[in-house]
Design goal:
This protein is of the alpha+beta class. The chain has three helices and 13 strands, in the order ββββββααβββββαββ. The strands form three sheets. Strands 6-13-12-11-10-7 form a six-stranded mixed beta sheet, with helices on both faces. Strand 1 and strand 2 form a beta hairpin.
Length: 184
């Protein structure tokens, strides 16, 4: 069976499609898994259990700075945690984030291209594995990692490469979210 992963948001319901299972979730926690096979359709009703998610946030680098959009960015991540919890892979997380950025009118550019250097020697241009928010915030994230160390290093490097004054490193872990803001 071909694996499909995507996220579609319609009104009050969220449709999550992954590995051939279509989960329909709504605000009361009821759901339906539908396995769409080539020769059969299997439907199973489930109740989504309440789960908790630990959140470790450090926004101190953005306090008393010229980052006017911090009041617009922070609620997006709070909404992500409240509405979706954790435990998603990169593809699902990316779709949710893009929908949240779009709904909040945050301008975002995925994988910006810049000059690459190795010990001062130019190597040409390359796409960076990050999202540029509002043309001045470098956003690096991972999913299901144990900690946020990888993103912390990447965001500092990408901030220098893109000459961006602000950065945000986020790990959407298995059961927790770690957020660290940076500024130059």
């Amino acid at each position: 069976m071909k694996e499909h992963k995507t996220q579609l948001i319609h009104e009050e319901k969220t449709y999550i499609i992954r590995k051939g299972l279509y989960a329909v979730q709504n605000e009361v926690g009821l759901g339906k898994f539908v396995n769409m096979g080539f020769d059969r359709v299997v439907i199973e009703r489930v109740i989504r259990p309440e789960t908790s998610c630990d959140v470790e946030e450090d926004w101190s680098a953005w306090e008393d700075t010229r980052c006017s959009c911090s009041n617009q960015i922070r609620p997006i991540f709070q909404k992500f945690v409240t509405d979706h919890q954790t435990g998603y892979g990169t593809e699902i997380t990316e779709k949710i984030l893009h929908a949240l950025f779009h709904n909040e009118n945050i301008e975002f550019f995925t994988n910006p291209v810049t000059e690459s250097y190795f010990h001062g020697t130019p190597l040409g241009t390359s796409a960076l594995d990050c999202i540029l928010l509002n043309k001045n915030i470098v956003f690096c994230y991972t999913c299901l990692f144990d900690d946020n160390k990888f993103n912390r290093s990447r965001v500092k490097s990408y901030m220098r490469s893109l000459d961006a004054p602000f950065g945000l490193a986020v790990n959407f872990g298995k059961k927790s979210v770690e957020i660290k803001a940076y500024s130059t």
